Amino acid sequence: MSNPIVDFLSKYIDLTQEETDIVTNQDMMRSYKKGTILLSEGKIAKECFFILQGCVMSYYLVDGEFKVTEFFTESQPITPVSYTTKKPSEYFLECMEDCIISLGTPERSAELMSKLPRLAAMGASIMEDQLANQRMKYDEFIKLSPEDRYQNLQKTSPDLLNRVPQYLIASYLGIKPETLSRIRKRLYS
Asked: How many CB atoms lie within 10 A of CB 49?
């Protein structure tokens, strides 16, 4: 049976069977119900996350209004900024669905690195990939029209459109729900 964490790590290094067994035997998985807040504004993240099943939303609350910045789904890591900086978070992480998530802590990471020293070198590659992906998303957001952003989302993450309420998709695209309705009507008529 495939293990999503092993599959993810295998993108960066070829794991031996022994290394695969060590990763597989880590007791890191937790279940969360839809609506669970994994991280609140003002709190310091004590864990990083790897989504095994479900969808997690990152958002700011600005004058009581949701400003969605990202959706994370299966096989995606989440390393909150405050996990790294040890400063209070400026945003929230919330489960949009029932989720199964693998948790990482500094202690657990240190233990895993002592058992698998090759993973330490891989960390830089993962961070570079995450930063590059975030930069590309930011650049697309700046350069593309709202309609083009929606079409890009359709192409790159079509499942989100069925998993996430439209008002949150609109926030993620930086538009009002009414604007998203007009775009959808224009595209589908």
From this structure: 25
The pLDDT assigned to 27 comes to 63
How many angstroms separate the CA atoms of 30 and 112, rounded?
18
User: Between helices 118-143 and 106-115, what is the axis angle to 10°?
Assistant: 130
The CATH number of 4-143, from 2.60.40.60, 3.40.50.720, 2.60.120.10, 2.60.120.260, is 2.60.120.10
Give me the residue label for tokens 């989302």: 153
CB distance 86 to 44 below 8 Å: yes
What digits encode the pLDDT tens for the residues 47-85? 999 898 999 999 999 999 989 999 999 988 899 999 989
Q: Find where tokens 């958002």 sit.
A: 59
17-31, 39-53, 94-108, 110-124: range with lowest mean pLDDT: 110-124
Residue type, 45: A
Residues of the chain with CATH 2.60.120.10: 4-143
Q: What is the pTM of this model?
A: 0.82
- Beta-bridged to residue 71, according to DSSP, are 57
* Distance of alpha carbon 80 from alpha carbon 104, whole angstroms: 11
